[in-house]
Amino acid sequence: MSYENVNSTLGADFRLRPSATPRFASQVQAFVSPLLARYGIVLGFLALWQIASTQGWVNPSVFPPLDLILSALWDSLASGALLDDIAISLQRSGIAFAAAVVIGIPLGLVMGQARIVEQALDPLLQFFRQTSALALYPVFILLLGLGETSKVFVIFWATLFPILLATIGGVKEVDTKLVEMARTYGAGRLTIFRRVVLPASVPAIFVGLRLSATTALLLLIAAEMIGANKGIGFQVMNAQYNFQIPLMFAAILLLALLGLVANAVLVLLQRRLCRWAQPNA
Amino acid sequence: MSLAPATLRGEVTIRHLSKSFTLDGRPLPVLADVNLQVRSGESLAIVGASGSGKTTLLRILAGLDDADSGEVLIDGRAVKGVGSERAVIFQEPRLLPWLTVLENVAFGLDTRGVSRQEARSRARRYVQLVGLQSFENAYPRQLSGGMAQRVGIARALAVQPEILLLDEPLGALDAMTKISMQQELTRIWRDEDVTTILVTHDLEEAIYLADRILILPREKNAEPRLIEIDLPRPRDRSSPEFVRHREELLRLFGLH
Ligand SMILES: Nc1ncnc2c1ncn2[C@@H]1O[C@H](COP(=O)(O)OP(=O)(O)OP(=O)(O)O)[C@@H](O)[C@H]1O
Ligand SMILES: [Mg+2]
């Protein structure tokens, strides 16, 4: 069969398809369907919420309709009422997250490389990992008082472990064949660390960073539950206490949105740092 | 000893080399009193059944493993550990995925403290030598298996070693890529003044590339055999002499 023949059979096939589908519609579909695949369940859930609430399937004073939540969010942002809370919350999460990064990554790099250090610290690590940061919050309060320190510390504690464990995992998974290759070119321990181990661990470290960033924000609700009079987490509790349910959901939504932003920032950073790992860079 | 004469560059002497591993608590002898002299600029192929100790021998030569007894001399000096006069090409390309082709080729120059600029220009020359100049800025995942292996070869050549150690470097490639890479290797070895020790289990590859072939026996007390391949290059795989060598090797392996 010649080339032309192949083409003409293909052409016939195409003509068999419903020619009524206009180009524009198919372009819209090409744009919408991945979105739908990705966010379909979320959108469906939100739609269900809205309908259930307005139709009275659920108690609207407990699950207020979305438009009420959104307008509560908008009002408190536009009036500037929440801005102070956002600032103090970001400060708490930010300091805790930064400390977790500054301690977790170097410690993880050392633990992943030095068997002795890892063996010495591993039981401790496993123990603390199994103990939820929230369960230790009373202990932190007892030790550090009710002020800022214990709030930052409980968030730090919760964010430290994902970063630490991801970093250890990343270092341990480094291909030993690459290390051996570097060795044949006369690379010493430091060079191997800098040029092989560290770059190879970056993707794994980012997994931990992203998990920790989200945790740092969501944990505000718990951290600001006690002994706080400002903060997004405090607003969640306070609104609940005063039965301002739309405001409560608005504050939760705000935390979730901040989490999404933090995640997006980290994804962007990861893309820049790991261009080599992307399918079409 | 006084200064070695220039002709001694890349000469390898193996003396009474022995190595055994422990398997299930019992010693497993792999190399027993291996003696060998590889001439400067010579290309030696090592063949032998699977498990006969080819990789073990090469890793000791590379300085990646230690022998139990015996010694390796390079240009008359006993060596221990890795050294800048040797470069290794493994079966897998072992490229660093976060570096471009050019950066990968420059890697061995970087680790040896060659200046960035000098390293880049030398790397560029070797990328060209293996015909990948249009892929200088590609990342390893964008390369085919054969291309990646060529990058590995360029990286090894770029450090201008006296001795090139290769462990089944073409073993993972398809038959056609393999043949074209063998031709390329002959060309490269003619241009680069380097002693090569090549482990392979492809008898035809050994005859095509090597000046001499060392056959490692399976029984540890049998003597290793050496076969001289005295054919002009580039070699013709279908010439009667070539075919005769292949038959001789097959007979030695009891396959003919
Ligand atoms: N690190 C090790 N520990 C224990 N035994 C080993 C080790 N490395 C190799 N051996 C043993 O040494 C013997 C020779 O292995 P080697 O890898 O040198 O064989 P080879 O000739 O390269 O084989 P192949 O052609 O399959 O690559 C084998 O029996 C193997 O089981
Ligand atoms: Mg082997």
TrEMBL record, chain A:
Residue span(s) of domain ABC transmembrane type-1: 86-266
Record field: transmembrane: 28-49, 94-112, 124-146, 152-171, 192-223, 243-269
Topology term for the membrane: Multi-pass membrane protein
Keyword Transport tagged: yes
Pfam families in the cross-refs: BPD_transp_1
Main location: membrane
InterPro entries noted in UniProt: MetI-like (IPR000515), MetI-like_sf (IPR035906)
Subcellular location, record wording: Cell membrane
Keywords from the named record: Cell membrane, Membrane, Transmembrane, Transmembrane helix, Transport
Domain of life of the organism encoding this protein: Bacteria
Recorded family membership: Belongs to the binding-protein-dependent transport system permease family.
Full protein name: ABC transporter permease
Protein species of origin: Shinella lacus
Lineage: Bacteria, Pseudomonadati, Pseudomonadota, Alphaproteobacteria, Hyphomicrobiales
From TrEMBL, chain B:
Keywords attached to this entry: ATP-binding, Nucleotide-binding, Transport
Superkingdom field: Bacteria
Residue ranges annotated for the ABC transporter domain, each copy included: 12-243
Coiled-coil blocks: none
One Gene Ontology term of the molecular function aspect: ATP binding
Membership in a protein family: Belongs to the ABC transporter superfamily.
Official protein name in the record: ABC transporter ATP-binding protein
Organism: Shinella lacus
